[in-house]
Amino acid sequence: xxxxxVSTLPHNPKxxxxxxxxxxxKAAETAGDEGIPAIELIELLFFAYRDxxxxxxxMLARLGFGRAHHRVVHFVNRHPGMRVADLLAxxxxxxxxxxxxxxxxxxxxxxxxKAGATDRRERLLYVAPKGEELARQLVALQTRRIARAxxxxxxxxRIAARKFLASMIDPESRAEVERxxxxxxxxx
Amino acid sequence: xxxxxVSTLPHNPKxxxxxxxxxxxKAAETAGDEGIPAIELIELLFFAYRDxxxxxxxMLARLGFGRAHHRVVHFVNRHPGMRVADLLAxxxxxxxxxxxxxxxxxxxxxxxxKAGATDRRERLLYVAPKGEELARQLVALQTRRIARAxxxxxxxxRIAARKFLASMIDPESRAEVERxxxxxxxxx
DNA sequence: AGAAATATGTCAATATGGCTGACGTAAACG
DNA sequence: CGTTTACGTCAGCCATATTGACATATTTCT
Lengths: 188, 188
What we know:
The structure is a homodimer.
Chain A lengths: L24 H4 L10 H24 L4 H12 L3 E2 H8 L3 H13 L3 E5 L7 E5 L1 H24 L4 H12 L2 H14 L4
Antiparallel strand pairs in A: 1-3, 2-3
The structure holds a DNA duplex.
C-alpha cells in the first residue's frame, strides 16, 4: 500500500454471512514476537504516515507548495550549505525534477544559493529567513503529533519506536540514515 | 517532509567549522518521555516508510502498476465485496481517479465486479485469482520487512510499535481505522 | 595550455495520479 | 412518476516525477 485515507468503511449490508475472517489472512499470519499478524502493522503504518504528512500538507498547500518543497526546505534547513548534488542524492530525484521546486523556493525567498568558496561551480544551499521559519513550523507541527503519541503511550515508547523504525530501513541504508540524522541533529 | 530517499550525504568539504550542532534544533527540542528531540523520529518515520513502500513499488512496477493499484488490490482483498463507494471513502480520492485504476485492474483480471444482490446499482468488488495472488505477495513482502525489524528489536516491540502507530493517527479517525483493521483481520 | 571531467542548469517530451465540472444511465425509493 | 443514489465517463487541468539532449562554468588532469 501507499498513502491511504480513511473515513467511511465498507458496509456489509445485510449481514450476509460475510462478517467473519476473510482472505489476506493466511498471507499475513504471525510475524515476530507474538502471534499477531503483521498486517495490522502494515495498515497502521499507512494510516499513521498519512496523518503524519497530512499535517504538513495543509500548511504547505496554503503557501502553494507541495511535498517536494517540504523535502527541500527540510533538508536544507537541517544541512545548511549542502550542495545541489547532495540534495539530489538524498532526495533521489533527478535534477530536472528538483530544478523547478528549487527555483520556486529561491524565487520566493525561502532558499538562498551561494557559490562554493573553494569550488565555485557548486551552489551551496541555505535557508533564507522565510525558509527557516517554514521549516521550523513544519517540524513543530510534526513534533506535536509525535509528542502527543508518545505521551499517550508508555515511557519506553520513544526508544522502542526509534529502534523499530530504524530496523524498518534497508540495512544498507541504515548507517547513512543514522549519520544523516545524528549529523544534522548536532551529533558530534 | 514526505517520501524521501537516502544514499549520499551532504559533504562538508574542508571541515569549515560547520561540524557542530546547527539550526532546526531549537524547533525539535524534546518531546515526550526522554530528552531526545522528536526530529529523529520525524526523519526515521520517513526513511522507514520509504523503504517499506519501496518493496511493493518494485514488484508493482514490474507489472506496470503503481501505488494506486496497490491500494485498490489491497483493500479489495481485505474487504471482499466492498462497494465502489466504500473504496472511494477509504481511499479518499475521486471516482474519476479511481476509475482508471479500477478499469485497468478489471481489464487485466485482477479485480472482479458483481452487481449487488439486493441493490443492483452497486458494483461489489472482489479480487480475482490474479489479484489475490498479487495482494498476497505484496503483503508477504511487507510482512517480511516487519518481521525482520521485530526480530531485531526486543520482544515488546510489536506491542509498542502498534500502540505508537495507532497514537499517531488523528484521534477522530482512530476508531474507524481500528475497525477497518480488526474487521478485515477477522475481528468478529 | 588544452582536454576532460564535474557541477549545475535548461529545453522538451512523457507518465502517473491526483483534481474539477459536466453529463449519462440504471436502479431504487417515496 | 419523479427524485435520489450508485456508478461511469468525457474532457481538461495540475503537480511531481521521468528520460534524453545539450549548454555553461569551472576545476582537474596530462
